[in-house]
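Standup notes
- HV: blocked on the assembly model, inputs below
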Amino acid sequence: MVENQNREKVKALMARFSLDGHDRGLLSVMSSFRNAGIEVVFTYFSDPKELAKVAEEEDADVVGITCSMGQHLFVASTVLESFNERKIDAPLIMGGVIPSGDIPQLLNMGIKKVFGPGSAPSDAVDYVSGLSS
Amino acid sequence: MFSKKTLDKVNEMMKDWEKEVKEVYEKKLKFGSPQYNSESGIPLKYVYTPEDIEGSEPEMPGAFPYSRGNRALGYQYMPWMIQQLHGYGTGEETKERTKYLIRQGMKGYGKQAAVLFAVDTPTHCGFDPDDPRSRGMIGLGGVNISTLGDIDVLLRDYDLPKTRVADNIRFTCLPFLAMYVAYAEGRGHKPGELAGQSQNGLGNRCLTTNLPSPVPDTQYKLEIELIKYSCRNIKSWNHTNLCGYVLGEMNATPAQELGIVLSKAVDLVEGGIKAGLQPDEFVSRFSSQVHLGMDFFEEVAKLRAWRRLWAKIMKERFGCKDPKSLQYRIHVHTAGSSLTSQQPLNNIARSTLQVLACVLGGVQSMHTNSYDEAIGLPSEEAVRTAIRINQIVLNETGVPHVTDPLGGSYYLEWLTDKVEEEAKKVMSEIESKGGYFQCIKNEWLRQLLEKQSIKWRQEVDSGERVVVGLNKFKTEEEEVVPAFTGYQPEIEAEVVKKMEKWRANRDNTKVKDSLDRIKEAMAGYDTVEKAGILMPKLIEAAKAKCTLGEMMEAIVEVSGGRIYST
């Protein structure tokens, strides 16, 4: 990630599927990111292609998606597909109410990290901060 | 409340107590005397005495201001109603779950059946299943309802006048009610024969469940429209659920929850008056969904303060005379946010304490969370256990034998007064900022709630707030609890296909005309004084087989579109 050398802060694009109203976890994570000096951009999306476009425009170092209604496998597969199409290599991470049984499948699909129920925002901060070094 | 002699005696005893604390605990045992606060931030003392409730008026259950309960007799006469919100997948699957819950003990008042159902987010927002924005979300968190056909699947086996229909819908309650009326008329029933409730809480939902919603001005008009229609046409319809639950889920404190909900009620009663209604015509038909968290005594105090503050506002501010307008009926939803996915069986203990608090607070009905709800939608075993908690408290503990069993407790009576006081402060603040809907518009309420939920997280992370299994008393190994349901592409495909068929089998010219008439009515809806002009157009559109999404789109298209709360 060459761009990072010209930028002081890690830039995280945080996204929520527009029809999943759960945003408490996301609010906490975004607040912790900002406190840790991570630049945060937030967007809603209903079409994975929109998200890929925003990720490209924002030149994000990492893209985080929150899913709490059971749509995580669908979202992961469609978002990864549109990221591949645009050749976006920013790691995709997920959080929210994601059953532990589905985590191996998500990682297999290409999601880099899953922060399910019980993860602390600091876990995500550690992971994302580590991306710049 | 007490004689001078008693108070003098208490005073003497208190001096001895204070002396012992100082000399034995603080000096000898080096006890640091930590300051405990209630969840709402009310500083607590270590002990309470008659002095703390000296200024209180004695009260009886069944009499104004109803802190001790709405009726002279409580659960001795009628147990609380076990109501489990449910819904997922297709209408058929949801109906099977309803039947299962009824077999386990869920019921309505008297002989009425209750159909209480959750819908998926496309239905909440008014996006039809074949709308690209609905992709991936159909049947998640609830059933999809977009047409009269979908309503028929849910309700065809029920005798409608003997059934309470309660939809848990965020933003499309008004077009849904129009569809239900059209459906019932199609089965030969008059609107006046129906019973049930609407959520009618667009503003509240927009604040907390951050989904695309109509703008605040439209929210207000749609809520007042529903109140006016139902109160003039469906006498026994509970038009508005004053929902504090979603506020509590964003960590509003108990006092904030009460203050915000009552501010909303004030805005709606004022709106109803502007729309030409007398408060006594519609105030008794407000219903509730109160959040019940872990601060046991403060939650009990909140339930008592809720009834009291409501009674005072409706009597003193709005001049209500009908006792029913003054008696606030409480439905509780135990706190989903208090559950943990770690050591999920611990959640049974949490729900049990919450159910006990509800019973001590004298609620009319409750939804009890299942222990697996931090993982996903509840399994049959988990939801049965949730129902059994209620049945154990009801049948094995003896708790329901005495009405308001904590009434007269120095601590609880004092706390009830304090929660009322704190809630009034919240109400004054909202009022000074222009009222509830204005505080949605200017984002003051949303910011308050965001601050609260971030604060909760920080307290958990720092260990200042203990959540057993989450940040303390953790187990080495994490139990894997299977999730009950997730996205099912085949359900989505089936629902989309059904929708295409629906559109093909109707008179589409008539559909367009009906939708145009909705737009005309909405475009002319400049103030709530116009209430009453929209609902007839919606019912007509429902009869012309317009879908929920089409009706909602027609409404928002001419009234400011949709927004997110932040």
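- HV (later): unblocked. Residues 81-462 of chain B form a domain with the TIM Barrel fold (CATH 3.20.20.240). Chain B touches chain A at residues 121-122, 125, 127, 132-137, 140-141, 208-212, 249-250, 337, 340-342, 374-377, 450, 453-454, 457-458, 460-461, 470, 478, 480-483, 485-487, 489, 564 (CB under 8 Å).
- Next: hand off to the docking folks.
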